[in-house]
């Protein structure tokens, strides 16, 4: 029987960087998982032993990678993967499933892509810290969400600094300035009736060009980011306040409660009222 730890992150919404599930496992020979498709990014670090990853590349073709201790592999959203332990030296690994607006930036720096998913370290001390951060998260599921997210940021820092395929970031690029301006405008005006045209105009950019540089930097279109940001704020209000659904709808920029409910259900899979029942924070007794 396999020895393992597995935890699901609390139902908290972190826009920049979110954690979904994590764990550790000492696999038995030929233990396999898949074929499976993930909705988020999933990184495994191999502590000991070896195994095999079968994953589709950008063109949809299946590639096979043999991975040993001290290496890792990244699984990307919507990618079909199967992985299994070696017959003679089954692997022990730890994993994190995560997502968020900062992930694409980190992966761009690390050089990990759907066509280059294998992590090799160029700094033993940093890869050791990467492993320690992952194991810390796996063994501390009882810690508060903000605490675990802090360690997830440290994991990404060690990942980007230790990856042998690391790319030097181009600091100060003009498009980065425009993206920061756009996200700041959304944060300050999401409750108003704003459109992508309004955001592009604030940045003094053509909508088409603005949409391209925003997606390249964030991994989402400006419209997707705006909706996701509004729904995150709506979830906070549902969880922490007694405001009516109608009032929350207005508070996040949806004059139509029907349109708000549709957008919320598309994002979270259930209606706002049901989500509140499942996630409401009980009022403290005085």
How does this structure look, described?
This protein is 43% helix and 22% strand. The chain has helices at residues 103-110, 124-139, 145-162, 174-189, 196-202, 207-218, 222-240, 245-251, 257-268, 272-279; strands at 3-8, 18-26, 32-37, 41-48, 50-56, 62-68, 72-75, 80-85, 92-99, 118-119. The longest helix is centred in the C-terminal third of the chain and has 19 residues, at 222-240. The termini are far apart.
Q: How many helical elements?
A: 10
* Structural class computed from helices and strand pairing: alpha+beta
Main pleated-sheet profile: 6 strands, antiparallel
Order of strands in the sheet with the most strands?
1-2-9-4-7-10
Please state roughly what percent of the residues sit in beta strands, choosing from under 5%, 5-15%, 15-25%, 25-35%, 35-45% or over 45%. 15-25%
Q: Helix amount, in percent?
A: 40-55%
Secondary-structure element sequence?
A: EEEEEEEEEHEHHHHHHHHH
How would you sum up the global shape?
Answer: globular
How many strands appear in the DSSP assignment? 10
How would you summarize what this structure contains?
The chain contains ten helices and ten strands. It is α+β, with helices and mostly antiparallel strands and 286 residues long.
């Amino acid at each position: 029987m396999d020895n393992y730890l597995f935890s699901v992150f609390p139902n908290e919404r972190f826009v920049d960087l979110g954690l979904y599930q994590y764990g550790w496992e000492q696999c038995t020979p030929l233990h396999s998982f898949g074929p499976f498709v993930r909705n988020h990014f999933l990184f495994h670090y191999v502590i000991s032993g070896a195994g095999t990853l079968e994953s589709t590349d950008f063109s949809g073709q299946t590639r096979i990678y043999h991975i040993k201790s001290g290496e890792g592999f990244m699984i990307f959203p919507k990618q079909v993967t199967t992985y299994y332990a070696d017959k003679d030296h089954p692997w022990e690994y730890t994993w994190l499933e995560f997502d968020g607006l900062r992930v694409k930036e980190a992966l761009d720096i690390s050089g990990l892509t759907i066509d280059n998913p294998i992590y090799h370290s160029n700094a033993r001390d940093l890869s050791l810290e990467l492993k320690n951060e992952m194991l810390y998260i796996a063994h501390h599921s009882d810690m508060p969400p903000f605490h675990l997210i802090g360690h997830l940021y440290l994991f990404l820092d060690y990942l980007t600094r230790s990856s042998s395929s690391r790319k030097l970031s181009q600091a100060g690029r003009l498009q980065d300035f425009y993206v920061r301006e756009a996200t700041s405008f959304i944060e300050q005006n999401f409750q108003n009736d704003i459109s992508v045209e309004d955001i592009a105009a604030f940045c003094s950019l053509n909508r088409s060009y603005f949409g391209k540089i925003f997606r390249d930097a964030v991994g989402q279109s400006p419209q997707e980011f705006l909706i996701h940001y509004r729904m995150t704020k709506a979830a906070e209000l549902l969880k922490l306040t007694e405001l009516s659904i109608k009032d929350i709808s207005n508070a996040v920029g949806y004059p139509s409660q029907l349109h708000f409910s549709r957008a919320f259900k598309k994002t979270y899979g259930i209606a706002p009222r049901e989500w509140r029942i499942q996630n409401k924070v009980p009022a403290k007794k005085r």
